[in-house]
Specification:
Layout: H1 2-17, H2 20-49, E1 61-67, E2 72-75, E3 77-78, H3 79-88, E4 92-106, E5 112-119, H4 123-127, E6 149-152, H5 154-161, E7 171-174, E8 177-184, E9 197-200, E10 214-221, H6 227-244, E11 253-258, H7 266-300, H8 302-310, H9 315-353, H10 370-397, H11 401-406, H12 414-447, E12 458-464, H13 473-488, E13 493-499, E14 508-514, E15 527-533, H14 537-540, E16 547-548, E17 561-566, H15 567-573, E18 583-586, E19 597-603, E20 617-621, E21 629-636, H16 644-654, E22 661-665, H17 666-673, H18 675-709, H19 711-719, H20 724-754, H21 769-795, H22 799-803
Helix pairs in contact: 1-9, 2-7, 2-9, 2-10, 3-6, 7-10, 7-12, 7-18, 9-10, 12-18, 12-20, 12-21, 13-16, 18-21, 20-21
């Protein structure tokens, strides 16, 4: 049997080489489907199947709080809770924590800002990772009063110290404080996300639990201890913490899960599952096309199959012969698709890595491993079965004397099979095009938002002020005032402003309580996005005043606290009422000294990030609500980047140790905020485009085959006086049945499929009429064109020549 199989494979290879156009067409079609399937498998493997690249990565667990009553999840753990649980728990070798933020390094060189992480002293030990140089952190380094140590990434060591091994133990300035360099981590290590510098968590906080810094918490379980037991113990500890708190937080459950699941959210899982299902539909369309081609090819070769049967070839041998061709086509296509998937995957991951909010570094690596190769071989073999089994079986069944007499004129009845496969293609194409159309329409709707501010000619930057250099609110306000004056004096600047965040970048937030409307027992207070801004912010960005007044020079510390609210906030909290004069308080009810804040003006809604486009925003004067991390905006009539050096110099004049980061235009922030949506729309659009091309090719191939089979009939009709229009209508009617059934089935499937994207869509529903009407219209046009082209070619054949056709 093995020898016979090799003979059939060699025969199939020679046969394919003798039909280069058929072979090339089939390979290209399957390369698209297989390549997309492998591409999505690689993405899912990177995001959801690959464990963190630490020695203990598979065993690590992550914990966070949840509220069973409100269904709130993914609540970070307050610092005091983590400290108490770390002391009391027994289920884990250690319970560690981290948070991310800005870390500034300065010294003899120009100050630089890095993506940093604040980690517990035992965090690296729990991961199972040691520095390649230096001792790293030791027990007690995160205790109050401990001397500050810093650990840096291998790339930072090379950049700042030129790889000098004697750098360990030297002193450097870290966030305005002296620190000792205690270690250099291995190359490529960037825990927890894409971080380059690590310092110990400051555990000296002594304030209220509700206002405490919050942390991401993880741990290494003891041998034999499962997730359920860990959760049970931590739940009991949370109950004791809540019972001892006079103002307990609204959390009542500890969620414990494998560490890698923390970074693969249910929404991400749902979207990637939808995308994988989409590319499988493309693969099915490609397989259906190749099956159509092979059915037609087997039909033309029926005489050959009949001769082989007559000289003793069994039906099984003929099936193997047909499958051998399919196998060679699919394995060739799989190799090409695998290469294309790796190239496309790396380009996509590079785009994600360069985005503003990338996932952890190990989730953006496309690696060729054994699992990837096995998947490629598996889908290649599956495609061979899907595309080749039916044509091979039909060819073997038709290998009889009738087939020998017909000599390849179509005895297999491939037209009926082709029509069925093409109907399936059309249905799958409706699903893909509807999905692509909804995502693209969603992006378009986002871009059509009427932005009530000037988005061109504005340069922004960000910086962080640390307690060592700026110990109180007065120092923060003095810095902001000095920086605003320096920036306004930069050549080319029309105006400058200071704010806690600029539009579409990010924003802080706070609980807030409407005066006279306390939250009911057991309920959380409303959450509002908050922006601190100086008096020139609204003029610099061109934000109009709708009612009331703007901030002025009298809105300073010690004066009555005021605020401006967005139209979304006014409509949400005071519907049908005048918001001017309304009062509110910020913070939790147990927080002391919560002054009343009076609303003095209303401004248009300005989105603060790409997702929360309708969040309620409250603006406060920077002098009354200063922040340690602040942004600036400088407006010009020319190229914003022409002011870049002048802006950096202005910051250096105010504080020579302060680095500026995220120096970019406001238009760039808007584009960054839409990155995820544009990427998803581009991917679904690519899937849909390939689906249309494949479906059009399949529909054209089937109709061309059907027309060629009816060439004699067309000749007879024309000889008897039938006009060309009537013949065209006959062919179009024949294709209309396939199209109508395919569109109907596809529409039903697409309506259900679209629900998977409902949470992602913006400005449209999952059943958007315009999208579905456009999809149906496009496919009708494609079908009409696919019918007219072969019909036109048939009509160009003279009637007498058509009558001589077999």
């Amino acid at each position: 049997m093995g020898t016979a199989l090799l003979q059939e494979i060699r025969f199939a290879w020679r046969s394919l080489l003798r039909s280069p156009w058929f072979t090339l067409t089939a390979v290209l079609m399957l390369s698209v489907g297989l390549g997309l399937a492998m591409y999505m498998f690689g993405a899912i493997q990177s995001f959801g199947m690959r464990p963190p690249p630490f020695p203990n990565g598979v065993d690590l667990v992550h914990m966070e709080y949840a509220n069973s009553r409100t269904q709130m999840e993914s609540i970070e753990v307050p610092l005091p809770d983590w400290l108490q649980m770390r002391r009391s728990q027994t289920s884990l070798h250690s319970l560690e924590a981290f948070s991310t933020g800005t870390i500034n390094l300065s010294g003899d060189d120009r100050p630089e800002r890095y993506n940093g992480a604040f980690v517990s002293a035992g965090a690296f030990a729990a991961l199972g990772v040691k520095p390649i140089l230096g001792p790293g952190f030791a027990a007690g380094d995160d205790e109050p009063g401990a001397a500050l140590k810093v650990v840096i990434a291998h790339s930072v060591w090379q950049e700042r110290f030129g790889g000098d091994r004697d750098a360990i133990g030297t002193t450097m300035r870290v966030n305005g404080r002296d620190a000792t360099l205690a270690g250099v981590m291995p190359p490529g290590f960037a825990f927890p996300i894409v971080n380059d510098v690590w310092i110990p968590i400051d555990t000296g906080y002594s304030g209220a639990r509700r206002e405490a810094p919050t942390l991401e918490v993880f741990g290494l379980p003891r041998e034999g201890v499962g997730v359920a037991r860990i959760a049970q113990e931590l739940d009991a500890l949370l109950d004791r913490i809540n019972a001892a708190d006079p103002q307990p937080m609204f959390v009542d459950r500890v969620d414990v899960k494998p560490y890698q699941e923390e970074f693969f959210s249910p929404q991400t899982r749902r979207i990637m599952g939808t995308m994988f299902a989409s590319v499988l539909l493309v693969l099915l369309i490609a397989c259906a096309n190749v099956a159509n081609l092979m059915v037609a090819r087997a039909s033309r070769r029926s005489r050959e199959s009949a001769i082989r049967s007559a000289v003793g070839a069994s039906r099984g041998r003929l099936v193997v012969a047909g499958l051998s061709e399919a196998l060679l086509i699919c394995l060739t296509a799989a190799a090409i698709g695998f290469a294309l998937a790796q190239i496309g995957g790396e380009l996509t991951m590079e785009a994600i890595r360069s985005s503003e909010d990338p996932p952890p570094y190990w989730m953006t690596e496309m690696r060729v491993d054994a699992l990837s190769v096995l998947f490629a071989l598996g889908v290649g073999l599956l495609a061979a079965v899907l595309a080749g089994l039916w044509p091979a079986w039909r060819a073997a069944r038709g290998a009889d004397a009738q087939g020998m007499r017909e000599g390849g004129s179509g005895a297999l009845g491939g037209g009926r099979v082709g029509r069925g496969l093409t109907t399936v293609e059309i249905a799958l194409c409706v699903v893909l095009l509807a999905t692509a159309g909804l995502t693209v329409r969603s992006v378009i709707e986002r871009q059509r938002i009427d932005l009530p501010f000037v988005s061109e000619g504005v340069l922004s930057g960000r910086m962080g002020l640390f307690e060592g250099a700026y110990p109180d609110d007065a120092a923060l306000v003095d810095f902001a005032d000095s920086l605003q004056r320096e920036l306004a004096a930069v050549p080319g600047a029309r105006s400058a402003a200071i704010t806690s965040s600029i539009p579409f970048s990010f924003n802080g937030g706070s609980q807030m309580e409407l005066d006279g409307q306390p939250a009911p027992d057991g309920e959380t207070l409303p959450f509002a996005g908050t922006v601190s801004a100086d008096a020139g912010y609204f003029d610099t960005l061109g934000i109009a005043l709708l009612r009331g007044r703007m901030f002025d020079s009298g809105d300073i510390a010690g004066k009555p606290q005021v605020a401006l609210v967005s139209t979304t906030a006014a409509e949400r909290w005071w519907p049908g009422e005048d918001p001017l004069g309304k009062r509110l308080r910020f913070g939790a009810p147990d927080q002391p000294d919560r002054p009343l804040v009076t609303v003095v003006g209303v401004v248009p809604h300005v989105p603060q990030n790409g997702d929360d486009v309708d969040t309620q925003i409250i603006y406060r004067p920077f002098a009354q609500a200063p922040t340690r991390f602040l942004s600036f905006a400088v407006r010009t009539d020319g190229d914003p980047y022409a002011m870049a050096e002048g802006v950096r110099a202005a910051v250096q004049r105010v504080d020579p140790d302060l680095p500026v980061y995220w120096l970019r235009t406001l238009r760039e922030w808007i584009d960054i905020a839409a990155f995820d949506h544009r990427l998803l729309a581009a991917l679904f659009g690519m899937f849909g485009a390939f689906a249309v091309l494949l479906a059009a090719a399949g529909l054209y191939a089937v109709l061309a085959y059907q027309v060629s089979q009816r060439t004699r009939e067309i000749g007879v009709r024309r000889a008897l006086g039938a006009n060309d229009g009537g013949i065209v209508r006959m062919v179009v009617r024949q294709g209309a049945w396939q199209l109508g059934i395919g569109l109907a089935v596809g529409l039903v499937l697409a309506l259900g499929f679209a629900q998977l994207l409902s949470n992602f869509l913006f400005g449209i529903t999952a059943h958007d009429p315009l999208t579905f009407a456009s999809v149906l219209g496009l496919l009708c046009a494609v079908a009409l064109l696919s019918a007219l082209v072969p019909t036109r070619r048939a009509l160009q054949v003279a009637p007498m020549q058509a009558l001589r056709e077999n």
